[in-house]
């Protein structure tokens, strides 16, 4: 399966989450629309640039289209990196939030199951309601006071699973401390 940072030998991964697949679909759809807009602008601007400015319109239009494609390619790459590298992992002992910031920075936050105070679900809008995705928000007593699982599928089921894992952890570790021989 997927490796998690500092996994203990007694720890078992229960949930490995990413954003809903629809988010990836909309990233690709947005990219396709931007490509079509760029190609249409190139087609219509070649002759306009020649007539308006008396310069070699097709060459300038090709240059501008190339710069435009490089920019939208970078935007697509960042969107894909955010989708694939933003992950949330729930084990039977802790919750990990791995958040990719830009292309070369990653933030990893960890929460022990014993520190969970509340778990809530937030579903806003027609698309999230229809396709059953939303945010799961975990309130904690730690330094990071909120853990947010953004745009995950089946948020109510994830909330129930986290609360069940929390209850099981508290039964096995009444003081909220991990003791493993």
What does this structure look like?
The protein is elongated, with a radius of gyration of 23 Å. The mean pLDDT is 88. With 181 residues, it is an alpha+beta fold. The two termini are 25 Å apart. α1 runs antiparallel to α2 (57-85). The strands form two sheets. Strands 1-2-3-4 form a four-stranded antiparallel β-sheet. Strands 5-6-7 form a three-stranded antiparallel β-sheet. Helix content is 48%, strand content 27%.
> Could you tell me the number of beta strands?
7
The helix-strand sequence is: EHHEEEEHEEH
Tally of alpha and pi helices: 4
Strand content: 25-35%
Q: Rounded to an integer, what's the Rg over CA atoms? A: 23 Å
Uncertain regions spanning at least 5 consecutive residues: none
Sequence of strands across the biggest β-sheet:
1-2-3-4
Q: Main β-sheet: number of strands, strand sense, barrel status?
A: 4 strands, antiparallel
Rough outline: elongated
Structural class: alpha+beta
Report mean pLDDT, rounded to a whole number.
88
Helical percentage: 40-55%
Between the first and last Cα atoms, what is the distance in angstroms? 25 Å
């Amino acid at each position: 399966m997927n490796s998690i940072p500092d996994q203990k030998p007694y720890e078992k991964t229960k949930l490995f989450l990413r954003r809903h697949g629809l988010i990836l679909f909309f990233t690709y759809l947005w990219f396709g629309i931007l490509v079509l807009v760029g190609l249409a602008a190139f087609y219509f601007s070649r002759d306009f640039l020649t007539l308006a400015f008396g310069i070699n319109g097709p060459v300038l239009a090709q240059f501008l289209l190339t710069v435009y494609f490089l920019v939208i390619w970078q935007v697509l790459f960042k969107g894909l990196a955010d989708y694939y590298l933003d992950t949330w992992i729930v084990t039977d002992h802790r919750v990990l939030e791995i958040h990719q910031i830009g292309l070369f920075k990653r933030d990893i936050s960890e929460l022990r199951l014993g520190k969970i105070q509340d778990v809530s679900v937030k579903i806003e809008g027609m698309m999230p309601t229809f396709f059953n995705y939303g945010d799961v928000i975990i309130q904690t007593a730690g330094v990071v006071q909120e853990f947010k699982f953004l745009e995950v599928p089946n948020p109510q089921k994830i909330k129930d699973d986290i609360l069940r894992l929390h209850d099981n952890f508290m039964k096995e570790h009444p003081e909220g401390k991990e003791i493993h021989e």
